[in-house]
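ugh ok so i messed up the first submission bc i forgot one of the chains. this is the corrected input, ALL of the components this time, i swear. 588 residues overall. if the numbers dont match what u have on ur side tell me asap before i send this to the collaborators (the ones from the other lab, u know who)
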Amino acid sequence: MDKKTQENIDGWIMVAPVVILMLIFVIGPALYSFILSFQDYNMLKPDKSEWILFGNYQELLSDPNFYQALFNTLKYSLIVVPVQTAIALLLATVANQKIKGKTFFRVAYYIPAVTSAVASAAMFMFLFNTNGIANKFLGIFGFQAVSWFNDPTYALPLAMIMAIWSTVGTQMLVFLAGLQDIPREVYEASAIDGASSARSFWSITVPLLSEKTMFVVIVGMIGTLQMFDQAFIISGGTGGPLGSTTTVVLYLYNKAFGENRLGYGSAVAVGLFIVIFTLTLLQQSFFKEDDDNYKPKRLGGKISERIAKRRKVNG
Amino acid sequence: MDKSTPKFMKIIFYFTTIGYACIALFPFFWAFYTSLRPTKEAYKLNFDFSNLSFNTYIDLIIKNDISKWYFNSFFIAISVTILGVILSTMAGYALARINFKGRNIVFMTILGIMMIPGQITMIPQYMLLNNFNFVNTYVGLIIPFLFNAFNIFMMRQFFLSFPVSLEEAAEIDGLSRKKIFFQIALPLAKPAVTTIIIMSFMGSWNNFLMPNLLITSREMYTLPVGMASLNSQYFSFPNQTMAGAMLLSIPMVILFLICQRYFIEGVTTSGIK
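and heres the new structure output, hopefully the right one now
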């Protein structure tokens, strides 16, 4: 057997399992979703399914509940993403200073992110209960006690607070990695030129981190548009009170598996797919030249090595 | 921050970092404290350490068969991790190092899949598993989660980045591909493999949407699905729900504390928690 054939055999043996899994569980289902979205398919009576072409999409676009879900999701995304990005950037900047207990802070900030959404939702529903500690704390500042997750005005904001709390740590770490790539000399030079800390933050840190910021913003948007777990727990799966926590994915879930309308659910999924796919393409085009995000030069001990090296250099 | 940094700046820095650390950790602290208190005191804001006990935990574990849920969660997460990581590493290696026919198509497809949100595959995946009677079985909770485009991509990038010379030397010595992969490439890839192990484990442990859909009986519950059901059941017993939240999050927090370096690595490369 010549080398070429051997390479072909070896290569295919090693990728075959993932290719098979990919075809069965990703590509096949994704394509089937498109087909299903043109059918009226009820899980309980699959033999009665029929082609209705754009019927599902028409119904979708005329369903006020869908618009409410879409509106909730966009509102959630548009508030959560900027707030968490800003907090993450602030914390990363501060944590990048030579302060004591850096590792402790990094660990502390990231712990919410390793916590299951189910656990954090339970904790927040307790903290933000009408008689809970959050209301008592806000009461000190003169706020009225509200029943957060029972009140349509406050249920979604509670989900936002929860999302911000659990994601800030992740994004802070991304920013921190970016900050560690900015050479210290740049700051030293600007300090010699008499720039204040605030000035060098806006003129050096922010522009040099712009790629990381784009990354964090787009990943954040994709994540928030797919929000499900928190909404499901807060509302007990209903999306209530009064639909105020219905997100697009929860709407999809309830239509497809609550009402057994798999075709209609697929139409929702296709719509969501188009939005997220566009966003991801945007992200890819921003990061095409920046393979740095994936460059595994940082893998393993490299981060700590570099930190140690930097410490040595800076005394 | 050095000696020239003004004192008030230092104060602001410490105020911010410590302040946010409190925000990040306080819910855990308060939830843990509450879980140790009797039900009727759960909403009291005082500190009373006289009647703390682990009774709530014992109660919850005995009444709800939580040990079975632990077993399910661990069994599923460990299986998904081990099998998934082996498959991703092999595929990543082949895509980086072996020049086989169709390599580019496979790689481009995997790249493309990274752009597909999970929701689009959810309904047909459910139908597929339903048709083959895999709903509410371990197989149904493990097999569909073995393919992970990001892990394959990450392993490919890793193998691309390290020097090919060692493997070439091994090839000249007459080692087969299989031996080169297992004896040379794999041991060297330890840091990258550790990172994807941890990310896979965390993803599986915290996974809620699909398991919630696929599990139909109490004894198949994974921890997140089980705890979600307890949340509604024990709604007026905050000490019970908080004990549940602790039981669910503590294993992950411990794993994180032990391997935090690899978590941080995984996060900074993927941006996904």
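quick check: Chain B touches chain A through 108 residues (CB under 8 Å). that seems consistent at least. DSSP finds 14 helices and no strands in chain B.
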